[in-house]
Amino acid sequence: MAGSEAAYQLAKRGIKVKLYEMKPIKYTEVHKSENFAELVCSNSLGSNLLTSASGLMKEELRYFDSFLIDIADKVKVPAGQALAVDREGFSEMVTKKIQENENIEIINEELLEIPKDKYVIIASGPLTSEGLSKKITELVGDDYLYFYDAVAPILTYESLNQEKVYFASRYDKGEGEYINCPMSKEEYTLFYNELINAETIPLKKHEKEKLFEACMPVERIASRGEKTLLFGPLKPKGLTNPRTGEEDYAVVQLRQDDKNGELYNMVGFQTNLKWGEQKRVFSLIPGLENADFIRYGVMHRNTFINSTKLLNKDLSLKSNDKIFFSGQITGSEGYVSAIATGLLAAINLYNKMNEKEVIVLPTITAMGAIVNYITEERKKFQPMGPNFGIIEKLDERIKDKRERYKAVSERSINYLNEVFKKDFK
Fold first, then answer.
1. What is the pLDDT of residue 317?
2. Domain architecture of the chain: domains with CATH
3. Which of 99, 118, 285, 372 has CA 20 to 30 A from 326's CA?
4. Residue 290 DSSP SS3
5. Which domain of life is it from (predicted)?
C-alpha cells in the first residue's frame, strides 16, 4: 500500500522510480496475488465519516490527491458508512496504473542490498521478507521489533443458509449491507466452548509471541472470558432480527469482499486455528453450516522498526536522511495510515531532492498525528492507527462526542485549505 502510493506520487512529479517487488518470484506466507497493493486482511479501509479519525485521514488524503484513495473510491462496495473495496478490483487497478506509468520501472526481485548513496523509500510492509529484514536490521541496529497479526476467513455468499441469516447494518446506519448470523444463548455457548478448545497452529520455537491488540485472534479474545466476544466481534447491540423483532444473544457479521457480492469475510474473526478446526468450529455458527471457505484465516509475523528512535519527522532515517521508511513497517497501523505515510515520504523525498522545505503536518491533522506518534520517542512503542486520542485537542470544550470529533475534523480541513491551497494535483 505505502510503496504503491509512494512510487506513484514520485512518478507523477516527474521522478524516475525503480520499484522493487519480489512477487511473483517470491511470496510471503499470506500473499497470493501477483498484483500490487494486495489486501491481505480486511477489504475495508474503515469509516468514511468525519466523526471518525479514519474518515478524517481519508479526507486529508483526498486533499493531497492520494493515488490509492482515489482508486478505492472508484471500486468501493456496499459497507454502510465504511469505505470497503472490491479486493481484486482494487489491486488490479493499482497494478494497471503503475505498469502504465512511464516513470516507473518495475523490478520483480527481492531487494537484498539497500543503496546508501541514493534516495530510497523502504515500504516493505509488515510482511517484510527475511532477506530484506536482515539488511534493515544491519541498517538500523537492534531497534527492530515485531508482533503477530491474524487474518479472517472469506466464504461464498451462495453457500450461506438464507433461512437463518439476514441483512442489516448496526443501528440502521447504512442500507443493510452486512449479513448477520444470529445466535441464541445455547448456540453461542456451544460455539464458545468449541472455539476455546480448538487446536491452533503453534508458533516457531525461537519466536516469542507478541500480539497486536487490534488484530487479536478471535480464539484469544474468547479465552479472556465467556462473555468477552459479546462485547467484541459478536456483540448484538444495534441489530434487530427481522424474523423475531428482537435483539439476538450474539451475532456474527459478514462483510462484502468483492464488487459482485459473491464473497464475504467474517468481521473480527482473525484466527490462528488450524484450517480443519476453522471449518469445524465456524460451521457451528447459524447460517454457516455448509459454508464454502475460499480462504481460511492465518496468523503471521508482522515486522516493524522502532521508528520513535530511528526516524526524523519527515520519515527519513536519522542515520541517513536519504533513506525513508513508510507504511506499516514504521508502526503506522492499518491500510489508511500506510497510504498516508507512503504519500508523505514521497513528497518529502521529492522536496529534499529539489532543495525544498519538507512537510511536517501539525498534530491537529490525522496524518500529522500519526507521524508524530511514530517519531516521538517513547519508552513503550506499539503500532497505532488513526484515532482521536493522538490528535491535538480542541481549545473549546464540546461535550457531545460526535460534535467534538466533527469539529476536530473541520479544523484539520480548514488548516489544509489555508496553508496548502489545494496545490497537490
1. 96
2. 2-147+301-419 (3.50.50.60), 154-297 (2.40.30)
3. 99
4. coil
5. Bacteria
